[in-house]
Amino acid sequence: MNLPESYIPILIQAGVAMAFVAVSLLGAHFLGPKQKKGNSVKNQSWECGVPVEGNARTPFSIKYFLTAVLFVLFDIEIVFFYPYAVNFREFGMEGFLAVLTFVAIFFMAFFYVWKRGALDWDK
Questions:
Q1: Is the pLDDT of residue 43 over 70?
Q2: Cβ-based neighbour number of residue 109 at 10 Å
Q3: Alpha helices, DSSP H only, in 3-87?
Q4: H-helix segments, 32-87
Q5: pLDDT tens sequence across 94-107
Q6: Which of 78, 76, 80, 69 is nearest to 114 (CA)?
């Protein structure tokens, strides 16, 4: 397998990242605290001295998820706009059309979130 030399640092970084994840997961499994099975008082849920109310399996409002989608939309927008803003002259018309396509898709998702009521905080 003949790889260009420019791929070697990428492969090294990917290997180091995968090794870090593997070591972290295995270390947490073997070195972390062990939970005893059973229904002891120690294993019960407790939050800041306040007794637990209700069931943890109750469904959440869709607004929580729509707020997360909205955050991701704005976050991804900034991540993709920064390289374009730095190199917009080099991209030319093709880059401009690609950014317009991205903005169109972004606004479609934004209007979806808006239509679903995620921006109406009073409700």
A1: no
A2: 15
A3: 8-31, 62-86
A4: 62-86
A5: 988 988 998 898 88
A6: 69
Residue 44 burial (10 A CB sphere; 0-12, 13-18, 19+): exposed
92: buried, middle or exposed (CB in 10 Å: 19+, 13-18, 0-12)? Answer: exposed
Phi and psi at 95, nearest 5°, equal -65, -40
Closest listed residue to residue 100, CA positions, set 72, 81, 120, 79: 81
**The two three-digit tokens of residue 7, written as one number:** 């791929």
Q: pTM, whole model, 2 decimals?
A: 0.43
Judge whether 109 and 69 are in contact, CB under 8 Å: yes
User: Tokens 């998820």 identify what position?
Assistant: 65
